[in-house]
């Protein structure tokens, strides 16, 4: 009997590729909020609003019974935002796993976050309260949308292609965030020639990031498909009650996935180290190395675009070596980076740029692979819930690195040992990661083994 070939082509891979391309656009959309608002413009602008509100002779103002210097209020806001995220994201993740229309939930959360971010534009004079509302709720909905977005990754890519898809999404994000930042820095630095005041230019730049975030979110909203929930916990009550019921059931069941939990702890350490290096890099460059604002801005832009290539490079390396080995290699490079920073000569621009390029190479790669690697260790049907713990625990402990940096700085009165102290986070995170048995974790989660682990 001769073989008969089915005349119906398998269009599933083509449909999946289309969804992946649509999914990349959300990283492109939300990265503008991180770079333009979170990294560059909001902090200095908010501090200027707080300074305008100072009424006391000692240069402080009272808030909630406390006498606060203007610049400290910014850090209190970030702390409040962090605590809120740690509390809200887990039940949100449990709810998202029960929703078939994840693209609609993603868009709703993103558009709400963009609305609050846009409120910052209207905060003028001494109206720091409106800016505070914008950044706290903007950050909260940014994190909430990130949970849903990450939970979509396992739905649009199989285990074999997970690292590639995650890395491309991360790379796309750095490219989008970097392009808008170039435009905004050109507007801000050339505000006089454009007939804009410095404050108005900063507000317009932040507004553009909110509009960019909201506008490009339309692409995944329109092009992604709905994926019915699978293996959802059967608990009674309304949607909110069922979400908390599922959350409680998952917390009890987590001991069945020890590899996922071990990786979570490892991630908390090495990601905290990464975030603290990024947060302190500009201060280190200006205060310790004496570089001008122009050099720092140029370095920030360079890191954005190098990180685009770095994420793609790490995706290719993971296809050959496996995600775990590639992440460990990235953590080794982070150890080299903070060691070199300890001895970096002041005023040497080429060395500083080389260090920035090294950060760009490993920055996107380690974070993108951490996302895809974790997705292999979590059970189907609970992607959003586990990613909510991934984001919430990250935010809930994100002060460890900054506290370490601040303590060492206070004890030594030097930024050099402070930044070098962060090597402990990469070493501890790497050692914990070596204890993750990848094959065992994938099997425990009920996922398929990729050809390279």
Instruction: Provide the domain count.
Output: 1
Q: Report the β-strand fraction as a percent range.
A: under 5%
Low-confidence segments:
none
At CATH level 3, the topology is Growth Hormone, Chain: A
Task: Report the total helices.
Answer: 17
Global mean pLDDT:
87
What CATH first level would be assigned?
A: Mainly Alpha
Give the CA-CA distance, first to last residue.
41 Å
CATH superfamily: MFS general substrate transporter like domains
Number of strands: 2
**Largest sheet geometry:** 2 strands, antiparallel
Strand arrangement, major sheet: 1-2
Share of helical residues: over 70%
H/E series:
HEEHHHHHHHHHHHHHHHH
Q: What global shape is seen?
A: globular
Structural class: mainly alpha
Radius of gyration: 22 Å
CATH architecture: Up-down Bundle
Keywords: Membrane, Transmembrane, Transmembrane helix, Transport
GO cellular component, one term: plasma membrane
Organism: Nocardioides cavernae
Protein name: UMF1 family MFS transporter
Give a summary of the structure in a few sentences:
The protein is an all-alpha fold and 453 residues long.
What tags apply to this protein structure?
2 strands; 17 helices; mainly alpha; Growth Hormone, Chain: A; 453 residues
Describe the structure.
- 76% of the residues lie in helices and 1% in strands.
- With 453 residues, the chain is mainly alpha-helical.
- It has one domain (21-229, 238-445): Growth Hormone, Chain: A, CATH 1.20.1250.
- A two-stranded antiparallel sheet has the order 1-2.
- A hairpin with a 2-residue loop joins β1 and β2.
- The model has no long low-confidence stretch (mean pLDDT 87).
- It comes from Nocardioides cavernae.
- This is UMF1 family MFS transporter.
């Amino acid at each position: 009997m001769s073989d008969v070939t089915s005349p119906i082509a398998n269009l599933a891979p083509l449909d999946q590729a289309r969804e992946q391309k649509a999914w990349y656009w959300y990283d492109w959309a939300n990265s503008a909020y991180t770079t333009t608002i979170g990294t560059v413009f909001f902090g200095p602008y908010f501090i200027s609003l707080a300074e305008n509100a100072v009424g006391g002779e000692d240069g402080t103002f009272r808030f909630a019974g406390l006498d606060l210097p203007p610049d400290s209020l910014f850090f209190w806001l970030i702390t409040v935002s962090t605590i809120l995220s740690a509390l809200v994201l887990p039940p949100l993740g449990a709810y998202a796993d029960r929703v078939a229309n994840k693209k609609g939930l993603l868009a709703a959360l993103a558009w709400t976050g963009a609305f609050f971010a846009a409120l910052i534009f209207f905060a003028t004079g001494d109206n720091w309260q409106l800016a505070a509302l914008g950044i706290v709720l903007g950050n909260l909905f940014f994190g909430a949308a990130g949970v849903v977005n990450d939970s979509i990754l396992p739905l649009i890519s199989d285990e074999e292609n997970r690292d590639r898809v995650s890395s491309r999404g991360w790379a796309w994000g750095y490219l989008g965030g970097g392009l808008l930042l170039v435009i905004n820095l050109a507007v801000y630095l050339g505000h006089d020639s454009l007939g804009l005041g410095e404050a108005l230019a900063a507000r317009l730049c932040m507004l553009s990031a909110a509009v960019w975030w909201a506008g490009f979110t339309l692409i995944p909203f329109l092009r992604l498909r709905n994926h019915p929930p699978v293996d959802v916990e059967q608990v009674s009550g309304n949607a909110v009650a069922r979400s908390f019921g599922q959350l409680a059931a998952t917390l009890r069941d987590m001991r069945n996935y020890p590899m996922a939990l071990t990786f979570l702890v490892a991630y908390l350490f090495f990601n905290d180290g990464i975030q603290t290096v990024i947060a302190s890099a500009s201060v280190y460059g200006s205060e310790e190395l004496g570089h001008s604002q122009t050099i720092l801005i140029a370095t920030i832009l360079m890191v954005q675009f190098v990180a685009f290539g770095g994420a793609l490079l790490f995706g290719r390396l993971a296809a050959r070596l496996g995600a775990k080995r590639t992440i460990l290699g990235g953590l080794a490079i982070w150890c080299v980076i903070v060691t070199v920073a300890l001895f970096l000569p002041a005023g040497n621009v080429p060395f500083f740029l080389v260090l920035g390029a090294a950060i760009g190479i490993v920055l996107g790669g380690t974070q993108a692979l951490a996302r895809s690697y974790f997705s292999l260790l979590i059970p189907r049907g609970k992607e959003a819930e586990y990613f909510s713990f991934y984001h919430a625990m990250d935010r809930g402990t994100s002060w460890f690195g900054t506290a370490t940096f601040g303590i060492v700085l206070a004890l030594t009165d030097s930024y050099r040992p402070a930044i070098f102290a962060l090597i402990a986070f990469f070493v501890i995170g790497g050692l914990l990661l070596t204890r993750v048995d990848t094959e065992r974790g994938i099997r425990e989660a009920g996922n398929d083994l990729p050809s390279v682990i």
